[in-house]
Amino acid sequence: MLQQILRRLMATIPVMGVVAIAVFALLHVTPGDPAVIIAGDYATAEEVAKIRSKLGLDRPFLVQVGIWLGQVVRGDLGTSIFSGLPVTTLIGQRAEATVGLATFALLISVCVGVPLGVLAAWRQGSWVDRAVMVFAVSGFSMPVFWLGFLLVYVFALSLGWLPVQGYAPFKDGLWPFLRHLILPAMTLSVVYLALIARMTRASMMEVLHEDYVRTAFAKGLEPRSVLIRHALKNASLPVVTIIGIGFALLIGGAVVTESVFALPGLGRLTVDAIVRRDYPVIQGVLLLVAGMYVLINLVIDFLYAVLDPRIRY
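^ thats the sequence. predicted structure below, dont judge the formating
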């Protein structure tokens, strides 16, 4: 098993190399020049050329790719064009807010979505099943920014229970940290909660018609034991896949939520970098998110063998 894990980890290296080159190429073929933005509207062509030379943007494309890949291999993601700080420092300053938000939203999605899906499958065709499906469809259809403003109006402005915006780091205490993340996490979790609920329902409905589940009911076992120990365990593979991919999507989809609630996370960092054409910051964040996708998919693959002993690598 350990040998297989090491083999799979080594296989991620060329994948990340292809991703890095693709990210670098896409950013440099898009319109816009950071040198022009830095120089300002009234700069001369000579001033813009000097800035381009200083940033290395006048070098051939392949040379720029080679220099950047060499820095990445050494753990150096470059330096921000505008702030002058290392990209790793900027990511480190913003990572806590985004990871905390994504983790909190994932916990809400799993703790609510899985029980709702199990209940809907168990009560198939009843008003409970229809209510869960209406909620799931509504969650898919609801714009994130609209839901965010609605929650702010109800829980922050009308009731005054939670702060409107801002962020408290974890070092200030657990409750202040969570208090500023409750509304953003609820906003971000609705779509994935609905997705997990629908996937759990579909998987459970297939399993509940299997012979071993009917046998367990015939033996007189409690419905809770049958649903959790027999049905849910065997229906968990597609659910685990959605949960794993959902965590990566939550990090990538936090841009709108962080903008609505003024959270200093990676989403806002990326938006600011795109507006300013800050290539090193955009490349660093995209490479980090792509790496998380690859690692999470690797973890999901090996969780399959844990959940289903019939799967062997």
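The chain has a mean pLDDT of 79.
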